[in-house]
Amino acid sequence: MIPPLLAQLFIAVTLLLPRGKQDTVPAELQGAAAALESGRVEDAIRLAERYTLRHGRDPRGFLTLGDAYAARMPTGRFRALDSYRQAKQLLPHDPEPPFRIAHMGLWLGGDDGERIAREGLERVIELDPLYRDAWDQWLTLYRNAGGRRKMIERLQANAKDPTIQARIAELLIEEERYADADQLLDVALARDSTHPGWNALRAESALEAGDTVTGIAFYRRALRYAGRDSADVLWRQVIGIATPSEIRAWWAGVPPDLKGGWLESFWARRNPNLFAGTNHRIVEHFSRLRYARKHYPLLHPLVSYHRNSLARTLNLEPSQGEREFHLRCEVFKTLPPYYSGGGIPLPGVSSVRDRARVAADPAALLTTEEKESMPKHTRRALEAMGGVLSPTLFVPLGMDLREADTVAARVGYNLATGLDDRGIMYLRFGPPDASRLGGDNTVDPQCHTDELERWRYAEWGEVRFVKPSAFSKGLRTTPEMVFRPMNQDQFASMKLGLTRDASSEPAPLEFGVWTAQFRNQQLAATTDLVVVATSGKLAAALVGDVGGERASGRSDAGRVTLAAGPGRYVLLAHAGEGDTLGRQELGITLRSFQAGPAISDPLLAKAWHGDTLVDRSAMLGHLQRGLTFGAGDTVRVYVEVYGLRVSAERVSYHVTYRMLRSNDLQRDIAREDWPGAVGLEFDRVSSGSEGQPVTEVLDLSPRQIPRGSYLLRVQVRDNTAGAQMGRATVAFRVR
Prior knowledge:
Blueprint lengths: L3 H4 L19 H11 L3 H14 L4 H12 L6 H14 L5 H13 L1 H18 L6 H6 L5 H11 L6 H13 L3 H14 L4 H14 L2 H13 L8 H6 L5 H9 L6 H10 L11 H16 L8 H4 L1 H6 L5 H12 L36 H5 L3 H9 L22 H4 L2 H5 L3 H9 L4 E4 L14 E6 L3 E6 L1 H4 L10 E2 L4 H12 L13 E7 L7 E7 L3 E7 L5 E7 L3 E6 L2 E11 L2 E11 L7 E2 L3 E4 L9 H6 L6 E2 L5 E8 L7 E12 L3 H5 L8 E10 L6 E7 L7 E11 L4 E12 L1
Parallel strand pairs: 14-20
Antiparallel strand pairs: 1-2, 2-3, 3-4, 5-6, 6-9, 7-8, 7-10, 10-11, 12-15, 13-15, 15-18, 16-17, 16-19, 19-20
Helix pairs in contact: 2-3, 2-4, 3-4, 4-5, 5-6, 6-7, 9-10, 10-11, 10-12, 11-12, 12-13, 12-17, 17-25
């Protein structure tokens, strides 16, 4: 079977001779190509070898022979490379041979594969900087300043091409030479001001340099023309913070005309402060990207851990050496006295963070080598004490580590961003509140290492990063800093780092939020969503899957009404008291009140005196934001009924109120039957007209609602049509 990575290279030998010398493909090579295509690899090798022996100056024969050996992986890899190199000597100015050499390096992986692939791709780009996907492949291989600077020099020969100008600018941005990058991008944009990729890079340069106004202006222009972003520059800028569901949506294919709106929604859902005029999450993202790129680059992109989900899964279980280090340096904090009988130090229990993970073995903290070198009399003494000199125990954490290989991990965040796992965590959550190198056991010199880092976030917990190759004695070969949890909390933080992201802007204010839906008073096809915060001022926004904010509003009174079409949205609700911010987010479905009978959600207010008309506006003005009333309050209930049948300009309906006193509102609200609920029923007749809602109002006296928590359900039946209109439920409390 032909390896997938190489399958794209087998072009059925329709190759060019040296430039200007076109020729038909010889019959022998046609036969070799046909054999290769049908899976007869040995026949293809035999035919290609026969041809190269007779035509040693024809590069097509060596390219075909290389393809044939490449199909016989892994044993054919070196013969394939030799054949491609011979073709390269015969075609020194053709990018195809080094391109195939590069793909062999990508297949081989590891340090040697990385060197082969990088050299091959750099030669391809030197010959033809726009050749196939050589540029995209090279972007995954280099992650150092020297490689960037050499590539900039290599591209200068073609710097008049706008596409090459943009690529040079991309590297200059990573070099933090923002003024030079801006100069090139401005020249390119002078030719095409609507190019989304060039605008996106210009925005990145400005935002990383701290020019927020200019950066946001260019970014908005990039989103406006995102449908033309065939290179997915905008997506590559944000994939490092995308959630698994967002990745699946992008993989499924976002239509070009919806890309801009999709990305607007992507950012709108992440807006950290709806009271601010600018979405500073965009600004913060590019600031984090600059820092992470500089401090946490991916240094070994071709190790199997980053390119193969099976290899990643096999590496998830910590090795014996990693477990030994963890117990010695992180669980145990100090060294006990020397054991008098054995004359060797026995690091052990002086202070234990988590006794549930500590074995009863008195030598549990010793490494395997130390146990093997222990004198026999010491071993016998320990065994007499009841110790069993087994390998260091690692009590299972009660979780399936394979779950860590989520959709988010499989997409290859590291390869997509050029960052190691520390960089991914930094990009998603910003700098930690505290960090530590090495273990807690500062007395033991073996615990002093910079190949273990632990970050602590006050809100998210502790995240542990390790180079597995440094502690596993050859059992794990991953030389990058990767997520490496060793307890439940660290595991939860790792999953958070692979599936979520958050602004660094604090939002400690605690508040409640509730909603009520109504038909819009001007447009029947639109739904009004009343959003109420229990305290503070309020800013709220509805965000759709596409299109950014669909509706937004702010109010010092703590309530806003948002109007949008029926459908599924994310509701962002931010409350503020003084300089303190609070954030809440929830998914919500707006119902349609346009067709058929329906009933709105209830509004509750403390009843007021006077001749004020009881309508929605008046109810909102007297709304009880916390849905909590005093023991002597009269509670006014308000709903709107839509679609009642009008007869002789009148409507007739039956309304039922049921009140359940509950000690578990969440449990009881889902129950269909409410045994013990108090019921009130009324027949109503009032004036009405087609298309106009009918308001239903009831005042509950203090005698009807003594102190306690309540669920109130309102149900309406149309007497004229003999049909149910619907029902609505609300919870409230009387103190």
